[in-house]
């Protein structure tokens, strides 16, 4: 690919929005950002790093729990790339220990493959009362086997997020996970605010899908939700209009005591880029009116992309475009310890995406640059 300057209508670098700026692309990679030179190639739309998603259960017709393999992970990552998400944390939810271990084996083997940045182990060490769609037969306290699995992943240099409930693990165990280098995220919990604060002090530094599967915030008891909002920890949140009311998403973002701690997750299932149904724990999960429903009539994950979440954040919650883009790029990247994937510096053109004026993903930069002559206009 030729060395060339590209100037979009607007440019987001992972932190701020710019106009009149250009990127120099050399050998398919960003090497510089500066004021747009006269010979820069004009590109219509908003150019941004591709989105980062730390909670992806499936995509492309594949559910990680059902296909805990390298090929399964790659299918999931490729399905989400079609919608502008270029880095995912494949997520294995509550299951038999052998399934979790197979997912860990796959994450180790997939290290460095396009779009796969580690493994999220969500459960099985959660509260029965807040299990959501997780199988009640498989929920159990944190044990040595999971500890050994996390240790094995970290020894291989694989990033790990583990979602657990404070009532399902001791503070010593949380400290041990943090020392291993795992991101400990609190979720699927019926804990009191005091229990949550103790877990934060032990090193937990994240929360999983705020509001969902958490003890609620009420006037005399902050619960898990209030504890997370009042903390300085990171927190994921689903913005699909089904899991959390748009007004509550906006309220939580505004209420945090420090900026850049809220990030967007899809909690996506196999239906994203795939058929409208899939099997989980032997049950058929069906997409109906934008909601994924299990046999109990409960929400079973989400059918949403990060791009759709960003648009909804801006259109429905009062979140600024800059903050919404941060929530889908630099904030999750920093949370998982890969700040480079949330920035423009040194990125491959294929990992940069273009959004139109309605914030819809149109293409990635590499594809645009490789289109036939005349597809781009000289600036």
Would you write up a description of this structure?
With 379 residues, the protein is of the alpha/beta class. It has helices at residues 70-81, 97-109, 144-155, 171-180, 193-201, 223-230, 246-255, 306-316, 321-327, 330-335, 365-369; strands at residues 4-12, 17-18, 21-26, 29-35, 41-49, 51-56, 58-59, 62-63, 85-93, 119-122, 160-164, 183-186, 206-207, 234-238, 262-265, 277-280, 283-288, 291-293, 352-355, 361-364, 377-378. Strands 1, 2, 3, 4, 5, 19, 20 and 21 form an eight-stranded mixed β-sheet that branches. An eight-stranded parallel β-sheet has the order 6-9-10-11-12-13-14-15. A three-stranded antiparallel β-sheet has the order 16-17-18, with no helix packed on it. The longest helix has 13 residues, at 97-109.
Task: Describe the secondary structure blueprint for this structure.
Layout: E1 4-12, E2 17-18, E3 21-26, E4 29-35, E5 41-49, E6 51-56, E7 58-59, E8 62-63, H1 70-81, E9 85-93, H2 97-109, E10 119-122, H3 144-155, E11 160-164, H4 171-180, E12 183-186, H5 193-201, E13 206-207, H6 223-230, E14 234-238, H7 246-255, E15 262-265, E16 277-280, E17 283-288, E18 291-293, H8 306-316, H9 321-327, H10 330-335, E19 352-355, E20 361-364, H11 365-369, E21 377-378
Parallel strand pairs: 1-5, 6-9, 9-10, 10-11, 11-12, 12-13, 13-14, 14-15
Antiparallel strand pairs: 1-2, 1-3, 3-4, 5-19, 5-21, 7-8, 16-17, 17-18, 19-20
Helix pairs in contact: 2-3, 3-4, 5-6, 8-9
